[in-house]
Amino acid sequence: VGTTQAANVSSLRSASSDALGPRLQRELRAMLDAAYAGDFSSDDWRHALGGTHVWIENDGRVVAHAAVVRRRLECTGRRLSVGYVEAVATAVPYRRQGLATRVMQHVGALIAEQFDLGLLSTGESGFYARLGWEPWTGPSFVDAPGGRVATPDDDGGLMMLRTPRTPALDPGGAIVADWRSGDVW
Ligand SMILES: CC(C)(COP(=O)(O)OP(=O)(O)OC[C@H]1O[C@@H](n2cnc3c(N)ncnc32)[C@H](O)[C@@H]1OP(=O)(O)O)[C@@H](O)C(=O)NCCC(=O)NCCS
User: Fold this and answer.
1) Are 108 and 72 in contact (CB under 8 A)?
2) Which residues form ligand 1's pocket by a CB distance below 6 Å?
3) Best mutation site among 95, 159, 185 for ligand 1, i.e. most ligand atoms within 8 A of its Cβ?
């Protein structure tokens, strides 16, 4: 529903959460609320903060976005510094023009520079597979305050991006998240 708008895609930007400023943070939150059609919680927003944002503007408005936050995850028994991707979205009128692809290509380069591994949780695996992300097929867990517990609802929805620093990894092994409230993956 609604018209499709062609974006002036020249303006890909990136900044830390602190550098966004209140106006841009408010605008970004509103864009994510609309793009996820009410399925973007306050926890999801909090999870998207504290790292680096990559976004595309059109006429001064945010039209596509992804965030990368640092997490310590245990992957097949190894503790890795992971660039975890959150809040990937394109505003509805700007979809299917390659904007999220462009954002995620930049995110992939950033992860390759700064982290041992990239990771994300998604129901859109085909979109990320084209960009080099591989499914994590093994069982997932979280180190909850009361101890390690399985997170079977997330099994099959996790994907990883190898970087030059990624050690030999079996994506069929166990993967363990550090604790956070809200969705742990
Ligand atoms: C998933 C999402 C981020 C994709 O954003 P997008 O900017 O439309 O993505 P792109 O345009 O880069 O690619 C999307 C598709 O459009 C296709 N496409 C890209 N440019 C195109 C063009 N010029 N013409 C037609 N199709 C095009 C891509 O091939 C891709 O195809 P696919 O559906 O087979 O993967 C967007 O649909 C969204 O915000 N969804 C709601 C929130 C969400 O689910 N986020 C991801 C959670 S992990």
Assistant:
1) no
2) 35-36, 64, 88-90, 95-101, 122, 124, 126-127
3) 95
Fill in the DSSP letter of residue 88.
E
Other C-beta atoms closer than 10 Å to the C-beta of 6 total 9
Tell me the pTM: 0.93
* pLDDT value at residue 2: 58
Average pLDDT, the chain: 95
Q: Tell me the CA–centroid distance for residue 184 and ligand 1, in Å.
A: 25
- CA neighbours within 13 Å on the CB side: how many for 135? 13
The 10s digit of each residue's pLDDT in 72-100 is: 999 999 999 999 999 999 999 999 999 99
Greatest distance between any 2 Cα atoms in the chain: 50
**CA nearest ligand 1 atom 16, residue:** 96
Taking residues 135-164, report their average pLDDT: 97
